[in-house]
Amino acid sequence: MGQESSRSTGQTSNFARAPDATDQCDDAGMPDGETPEPQTPEPQTPEPQTPAPQAQAVVIRISPMAQFAPAFLAVSILVLVPAFGNWALVLLLIPALVSVAIIRLRTVADRDAVTARSLLTSKTVPWSQVEGLRFTRGGWARACGAGGDALLLPAVTFATLPRLTAASAGRVPNPYR
């Protein structure tokens, strides 16, 4: 099936034309009494279906762009070194701690559980114990448990819920659908 030109418009097409009366074979080349055999399409074998991929763990973390804040704070503290001497160097621990927090804080969610990682600890809760998520204005989500427990989910905002929905296999509803 190559390109065939259209009779009416002069354009080319990548599709074969449907047969019409002028495209039918005549029996001029066939011996008397024989008719051409109808062409049957070859049966197509279905391709093996691959199983649906399982939801992989999703890591939701603070944007790396947030590292600009501790860097700016460190430069600002360095300006104070001539005025306060070596005591101002101790203040450089503050931007270092903020930078480590930006790197460390994250939420890891998969099909079975959600893990909240804070500066010093990590806590994993199975999805079966999570009754819902609570959001505060401008804050991160909290996973609410059956006993009234609330687990802070670092970096999980309303905008990241579709990623959390995919990772939890639909246990967290997607508000955008």
Précis, in short:
This protein has helices at 68-84, 87-90, 93-104, 161-167; strands at residues 4-5, 12-13, 58-61, 106-109, 113-117, 122-126, 130-134, 141-145, 150-153. It is of the alpha+beta class.
Description:
The longest helix has 17 residues. Helix 1 packs antiparallel against helix 3. The chain contains four helices and nine strands. The two termini are 43 Å apart. The protein has a domain of 110 residues. It has a four-stranded antiparallel beta sheet. A three-stranded antiparallel beta sheet has the order 7-8-9, with no helix packed on it. It is elongated and about 85 Å long. The N terminus is likely disordered. 9% of the residues are buried. Helix content is 23%, strand content 20%. It has 177 residues and is α+β, with helices and mostly antiparallel strands.
Key descriptive features of the protein:
elongated; 23% helix; 20% strand; 177 residues
Itemize the secondary structure elements and their pairings.
Layout: E1 4-5, E2 12-13, E3 58-61, H1 68-84, H2 87-90, H3 93-104, E4 106-109, E5 113-117, E6 122-126, E7 130-134, E8 141-145, E9 150-153, H4 161-167
Antiparallel strand pairs: 1-2, 3-4, 4-5, 5-6, 7-8, 8-9
Helix pairs in contact: 1-3
